[in-house]
Design brief:
Layout lengths: L6 E2 L6 H5 L2 H10 L3 E3 L4 E4 L2 H9 L4 E2 L8 H6 L11 H7 L2 H4 L1 H4 L3 H18 L2 E2 H6 L1 H11 L3 H4 L2 H10 L6 H19 L10 H10 L8 H11 L2 H16 L1 H8 L5 H11 L5 E6 L3 E3 L2 E3 L4 E5 H4 L34 H18 E6 L3 E4 L4 E5 L1 E7 L1
Helix pairs in contact: 8-20, 12-13, 13-15, 14-15, 16-17, 16-20
């Protein structure tokens, strides 16, 4: 008699699960290393080792058929960095590799630190502000828009475009369907914008220059522009706002950062591990794969649960506890292998600038009730009122 495959009719993308996914993830990890999601026709990979292996092995876990959980988004993503494998992926990613490499980013450090200091100084003088709309959204939006060279005429639409793009990576539910109009608007702009409308020396201009040089096809310009415009905004927004929440709820951890006992980037790694901004992407197996106690056949779509792997008790001690001394540099939030986040160096530099500026000025946070933002793939906050700050 054939063994019974682990399966569940759980909807991972229901409002209730998205509002608090971690108990659900714990149940999935306890059940098996791979579980078939009947509602979505895909396998969930909830444990750290399984997610890490899949991220590290593009030959077995392919991105070429897209990384979303619906066919429409996977078709729309063809020709992008996310929905490709080497050698195509290597060529697409090379376009901006110089600008996003550590040496290329160093020229930004001084400007980022000055901008972060100015923003934080202005906010703490007000005493009360919203950590999402006044801080976490403002800083990454300005940074990415400047780097990509986005004209002022569309900057106020970038946040809604980014949010729609990420939620569309989920299943074809109502949330995804409601995102189509914003995505269509974004792609209309990406297809119609001319290189001359993007700032000279910007990443956006570099995409068109690469096409003119024959490094990539001109057809790839619009998808690449949309990807680099949206990918670096919301993820950093949610990481920064979650950092404020966690440090407000755990003042002893904030003291460790303020006093210099823990490096600010080590603390940021713990923020990313504790609540991954991107909770899941998918891959397709090219051959049958053994996940400990379960074999997933070839040609199956698997949902890699970054957020679950980052809370796996098999890998992290007391994983639900926020502990900045943990130094979890091996967290899954930036991915692994060829598809590791191209903009992680920029995200870390932004976080360092903002958290360092806050550490110099703020001794204690007093926050109101956080309002959760619901997105199929992203986990973050819509609002976090900072009702009072005690200055350092």
């Amino acid at each position: 008699m054939a063994p019974t495959l682990p399966r569940t009719d759980l909807d991972l993308f229901s409002d209730d699960v998205l509002a608090d996914p971690y108990p659900v993830y714990a149940d999935l990890r306890a059940q098996a290393s791979a579980i078939f999601l009947e509602r979505h026709g895909a396998w969930a990979i909830p444990r750290y080792d399984g997610v890490r292996e899949a991220l590290s092995n593009w030959r077995v876990f392919s991105s070429a058929r897209g990384v979303a959980l619906n066919d429409a988004m996977n078709s729309a993503q063809q020709g992008t960095v996310l929905a490709s494998d080497p050698p195509e992926h290597r060529a697409l990613r090379s376009v901006l590799s110089e600008q996003l490499a550590p040496r290329g980013l160093q020229r930004l450090r001084g400007d980022l630190e000055r901008s972060a200091t100015q923003l934080v100084d202005a906010l703490v003088e007000r005493d009360s502000f919203d950590a999402v709309t006044d801080l976490a959204q403002v800083f990454p939006l300005a940074v990415v828009a400047d780097l990509v060279g986005i004209p002022d005429s569309v900057r106020n639409r970038l946040l809604s475009w980014a949010d729609a793009s990420f939620t569309a990576f989920g299943p074809l539910n109502d949330r995804t369907r409601k995102s189509w109009e914003a995505r269509k608007e974004m792609f209309r702009w990406c297809r119609s914008v001319r290189a001359s409308e993007l700032a000279p020396g910007s990443m956006g201009r570099a995409i068109f220059e690469a096409a003119d040089a024959g490094i990539i096809d001109h057809a790839s310009c619009a998808p690449l522009l949309s990807a680099y415009t949206t990918a670096g905004i919301d993820t950093t927004v949610h990481a920064l706002s979650h950092a404020v929440l966690m440090f407000a709820e755990n003042p002893d951890q904030w003291d460790l950062v303020r006093d210099g006992d823990v490096d600010v980037l080590d603390a940021f790694d713990e923020v990313l591990r504790h609540d991954s901004p991107v909770q899941a992407f998918t891959r397709v197996t090219t051959t049958s794969v053994d996940f400990e106690d379960v074999t997933v056949p070839a040609g199956e779509r698997v949902v890699l649960l970054f957020g679950s792997g980052n809370r796996d008790e098999r890998h992290y001690t007391d994983p639900d506890r926020f502990d900045v001394t943990r130094k979890p540099s091996d967290h899954l939030s930036f991915g692994r292998g060829v598809h590791s986040c191209a903009g992680q160096g920029l995200a870390r530099m932004e976080a360092s600038a903002v958290l360092s500026a806050l550490a110099r000025r703020v001794r204690r946070w007093h926050v109101g009730a956080p309002v959760r933002h619901v997105n199929n793939v992203l986990r973050g906050l819509a609002s976090l009122p900072v009702e009072q700050v005690e200055l350092a």
